[in-house]
Amino acid sequence: MSTLFKLENASIGWERETIIRGLNLTIQAGEHWALVGPTGSGKSLLLSVLAEKRSILNGTFQAIPAKKDIELVASDFSFNRNIAATATFYQQRFNSYASEESPTVWEVLQEQVKPAGTVDAHSVELPPLAYDEDYLQQVATQLRVSHLLERHVTSLSNGETRRTLLTRSFLKKPKVLILDNPFVGLDVTSRASLHEILNHIAESGTTLLMVAPPKDIPAAITNVLVLPQGTSVTRENYVPTQDLTERKVIELPKPLTEHVDFSYAIHMRNISIRYGETQVLDHVNWAVKRGEKWALLGPNGSGKSTLLSLITGDNPQAYANDFDLFDRKRGTGESIWDIKKKIGFVSPELHLYFPRDQNVWKVIASGLFDTMGLFKVLKPDLVEYLEAYIAAFELQDLKEKKLSQLSTGQQRLVLLARALVKNPPLLILDEPCQGLDTDQMTRFRDTVDALSETSERTLVYVSHYTEEIPTCVTHTIRLNQGKVVEMV
Question: Are 274 and 474 in contact (CB under 8 A)?
Fold first, then answer.
């Protein structure tokens, strides 16, 4: 076997902080590697080094494949960040006109995307097709996106987006395909499908390097690197570590505001949403009483995110539908800020579009004002409360760091803290544990349980993993293809 990558006594990290020290690693052709370890252990940083996107701090690093033969599919699965598309803000996916203006999957794969703001499509001179059409169709079939080619990218579910971006990378025939948490946010069916696709890619001769939790390591993986220790083992000898330490539930300081009075947090009547020919929500009826704890379930593309966007005020079709929030009919004069101040919210999309140039302290503080960052000087009592709050989350050591300097899991934990900081009567957690390791997931789930013991707290929790759902949840609504298929 020939060597593809070699690190000797390598240190990896940020300019002022070393995350991985003294790493010795050799990756041979024919091997497929998974990187595992707790949040913040440097998994994504190491992938960026292997992809030649980042330099090591000390030691030596040698990459044999040419840079053009190494393809990195990052953990950020937004088309807005991966291609020069027309999507410019996360609300765009809930606007039918924006969906129609966004590029199709075929245009993305063939590099035929028109510049943002194009008025006359015929005035744009596009490059030649990137690939022979027969080859494109062949790869699209192998990676199960052939039926998506004419779809607009803003209409894709998480699983469909993931497969499309994998197809975009695989079309380039890379020698090495690097994947950062490819299973994040996928339902059971989509995860199984992605497992088969990745196994197929490995069989084709492309080397796979990926970050993945132990429960989602594909069968094709031959070796496992455990960080931060830097221990290398073969797949058959890898045994996931069990954290047997006592779970410590976060005890938050006394909130500054009391809960508002209402009977129903959410009361929806025959909610229907259509984008072009696609019926996203189909006559949904749902009533959530004050203090109830609900799990909102369903496969990728079932309409969950659209349903939540009506509640959080991010969907312009809210005014065409009949529903109440906190006993007040939506569209009767309340502002979007009146709604948001009563809701604590975290989602993959909020994480994706949140500005990363503010420090952790300001990010958490911004949750008091529902802004995407802190833009005012706080009074001493608020500063004191925030310091106690950040200490409760054990984020003191990170509070002066920018969000961009944190690992994906650390960023998600900060945004979870932001969602809770104003003591909202309604807490909406849309896949809040994406990017957290098992210990952090368990700790946060137990914390949500502790915070939800009171009848004052209303909860809507979305997850594709049943083990993440807090035990306080007593009601379930399940969607499929925009319809309610179960409500208990």
Answer: no
Q: Considering only CA atoms, which of 439, 468, 469, 477 is closest in space to residue 39?
A: 439
Amino acid sitting at position 290: R
Which residue is it, tokens 């003191």?
396
486's enclosing H/E stretch is strand 483-487
Summarised one tens digit per residue, pLDDT across range 169-201 is 899 999 999 998 888 777 788 888 889 989 989
- Copy the structure tokens of residue 277: 């020919």
The pLDDT of residue 160: 81
Contact call for residues 220 and 32 (beta carbons, < 8 A): yes
Structure tokens at 351: 């994480």
Domains and CATH numbers, the chain: 1-65+175-241 (3.40.50.300), 264-487 (3.40.50.300)
Structure tokens at 179: 């994947």
pTM over 0.85: no
Side-chain-side CA neighbours of 374 within 13 Å: the count stands at 19
**Cα–Cα distance for residue pair 368/245, rounded to 1 Å:** 33
Give the pair of three-digit tokens for residue 181.
């948490």
What one-character DSSP code corresponds to residue 341? T
Nearest residue to 182 via CA among 25, 63, 44, 5: 44
